[in-house]
Each structure stands twice: as C-alpha cells, then as structure tokens.
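To whoever is on call:

I kicked off a structure prediction for a single chain this morning and the downstream step that reads the tokens threw a length-mismatch warning. I double-checked the sequence; it's 228 residues and nothing unusual in it as far as I can see. Pasting both halves so you can look.
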Amino acid sequence: MLGMFAQNTKEVDPEAEEKTLSIIDLLLSGGTAGVLIIGILFVLLFVAVYIYFERIFAIKAASKFDENFMDQIKNNVTSGKIEAAKILCAQTNNPVSRLTEKGISRIGNPLEDINTAIENAGKLEVYKLEKNVSILATVAGAAPMIGFLGTVIGMILAFHNLASSSGSADMGSLAEGIYTAMTTTVAGLVVGIVAYIGYNHLVVRTDKVVHQMEATAVDFLDLLNEPA
C-alpha cells in the first residue's frame, strides 16, 4: 500500500512540474517582438503608477483644509487686520489659502478686479493639481492599442511560419506567434485598465479640491459684499 502511494506520488510530481509556468516565462515566450512590446508596456505601467502616486499625494496635501480658516480670515478682514490675514494665508499654504491671499491683496480695488484675480489664481492652482494627469489618460488609451499591435504582429508571425512551411508547420513554430498575440493583448489591457482607473480616481479627487476652492472664493467675495 505504501509502495503504491509512493509510486503515485512520483508519477504526479513530474506532471505537475510540466504544467507549471511562471508569469516571467509566459511573458518571455512570445519571441523578440513579444518581449519588445511587453517591455514598452512595462515602462508605461511604471510611468502610470508613478504619476498616480505622485499626484495622489499632492492632491491629498492640497485638500487639507482647516474648517476655521475662513472664520479667522473674516475676523481679521472685518477688523482691518489685512496683514494678519495675509500671514495666516501664508502659514496655511494650500490652494484655498493662496486664492484667499490673492483676493486679500486686491482689497481696495473694484470687486470685479478681485473676482478676476481670484479666477486667474484658481486656474493656476487647477493646472498644478492636474499636472501630468493627461499623461495617465494617454497611457490608458495607448496601452491597449499597443497590446493589439502585438496581437497583429503575433498572428502575422504565426501565419508567416505556416506559409513558409507550405502548410505543414509544427505546433511549436506556431506557438511563438500565438503567445506573442495573447500575452501582449493581456498586458496591454492590464496596463490600460490600471491607468484608466487611476486617471478617473485622480479626476474625482481633483474635482473635490476645485469645489473647495470655488466655495472658498464665493465665501470671500460674500465677505467683501457684506455691508460695513
């Protein structure tokens, strides 16, 4: 009985080893064209992940906002402590405080000029928040297309091998082209999905900060409109 069990174990282990295929081996089994396209997609994945985390930390820092900030600004402005309000904005150092500081520096000018100055400053802040996010959108669109390019190249290689052998090509010669087609397609879709999800998440987080800036700008203009 024990002998039979040991014999069965010896028979199963080699079969399991034959069926085991690592991800690296799978990615490298598509030949030179497949490796080249996989390499390009890997670089795009690295770029997408780097931009995502760099932007998410920047947006997170920009979204930090003290709920009492506008109350303190209101108290300083109504009390005529303009310099104290500017110092408070400089110490806070986020998009909301920079917009407010821009408005405070224009106090004494017509309200329309103050509003224009805040809008212009707001555009600059939005530009800073959206820095390199467009690259993430480009990766999300380009990666699947590069993967499909690998699919076409792989099928061309497979049919070329088939045609060169007058229709009698063995499965081994066809497998390389098929591997190139399948692995590049999967890799392109994975990179595209990761970049697409990251892009949309950054857009949502950026919109929240922009809404916060708009609400603060309205509050500040309302403060200037209040009767003395």
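Update from on-call: the warning came from a stale cache, not from the record. Cleared it. Sanity check on the structure: The radius of gyration is 30 Å.
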